[in-house]
């Protein structure tokens, strides 16, 4: 699944 | 977490620490744009809305608290500290930063990933961060002698998002995630806005002369 990566960035 | 992301976060952390160090130790905010600091406080306030709802990691939460705490305390120092406030040059720091907030909010209302409050706020914070440095760059052009700490602050602040771009490239090729194109574009625009500063900063470092931006 393609989670949008920005969730774990600052 | 890849090396580019860690380097980016550490560079960002270094930039806020350099600024806090300058303001706290020499009790001066000469050459620092309050407008940019206020915009950054707003960037973090609108970007980290999920700090209470989504726990990613201790590192993530701690860094968010540091960026929120440092940006708001810098604004407080410049506005209310009885010594620091005297060194704030409000006649030079005249960029109308409301003209930056409004288009960013409008753009976020029309161009976003999904139309939810948190998502629109997050997108607004991305657009706003891309242009938040403008009042500071304008002030630097007006300030004839830029002190080293302020120059280092702006350099580190510009470098962090540049490192994030490498992080996005790295993750694009190594992980089944994707970076939304809004993130890419805002990050690239933000870094490009520093391009001429980087040029003059490098020139001053190479020729070992004081940093001066052409008016």
UniProtKB/TrEMBL annotation, chain B:
Tell me the InterPro entries matching this sequence.
ER_ret_rcpt
Which family is it part of? Belongs to the ERD2 family.
Going by the UniProt record, its keywords in alphabetical order are: Endoplasmic reticulum, ER-Golgi transport, Membrane, Protein transport, Receptor, Signal, Transmembrane, Transmembrane helix, Transport
Transmembrane annotation, as ranges: 55-78, 98-115, 121-140, 152-170, 182-202
Output the PROSITE patterns linked to this UniProt entry: ER_LUMEN_RECEPTOR_1, ER_LUMEN_RECEPTOR_2
Question: What GO MF terms are annotated?
Answer: ER retention sequence binding
Give its localization. Endoplasmic reticulum membrane
Give the matching Pfam families: ER_lumen_recept (PF00810)
Q: Which GO terms describe its biological process?
A: protein retention in ER lumen; protein transport; vesicle-mediated transport
- Could you name the Gene Ontology cellular component terms for this entry? cis-Golgi network; endoplasmic reticulum; endoplasmic reticulum membrane
Q: How does it sit in the membrane?
A: Multi-pass membrane protein
Q: What is this protein called?
A: ER lumen protein-retaining receptor
Signal sequence, start to end:
1-31
């Amino acid at each position: 699944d393609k989670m949008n990566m920005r969730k774990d960035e600052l | 977490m890849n090396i580019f992301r860690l380097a980016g976060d550490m560079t960002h952390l270094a930039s806020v620490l350099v600024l806090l160090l300058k303001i706290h130790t020499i009790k001066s905010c000469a050459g620092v744009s309050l407008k940019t600091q206020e915009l950054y406080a707003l960037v973090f306030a609108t970007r980290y809305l999920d700090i209470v709802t989504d726990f990613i990691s201790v590192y993530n939460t701690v860094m968010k608290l540091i960026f929120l705490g440092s940006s708001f305390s810098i604004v407080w120092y410049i506005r209310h500290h009885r010594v620091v406030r005297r060194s704030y040059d409000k006649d030079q720091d005249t960029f109308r930063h409301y003209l930056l907030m409004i288009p960013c909010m409008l753009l976020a209302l029309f161009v976003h990933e999904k139309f939810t409050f948190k998502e629109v706020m997050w997108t607004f914070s991305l657009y706003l961060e891309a242009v938040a440095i403008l009042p500071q760059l304008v002030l630097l052009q007006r300030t004839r002698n830029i002190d080293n700490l302020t120059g280092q602050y702006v350099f580190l602040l510009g470098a962090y998002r540049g490192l994030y771009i490498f992080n996005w490239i790295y993750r694009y090729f190594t992980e089944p995630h994707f970076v939304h194109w809004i993130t890419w574009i805002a990050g690239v625009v933000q870094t490009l806005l520093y391009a001429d500063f980087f040029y003059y900063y490098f020139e001053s470092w190479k020729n070992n002369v004081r940093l001066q931006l052409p008016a």
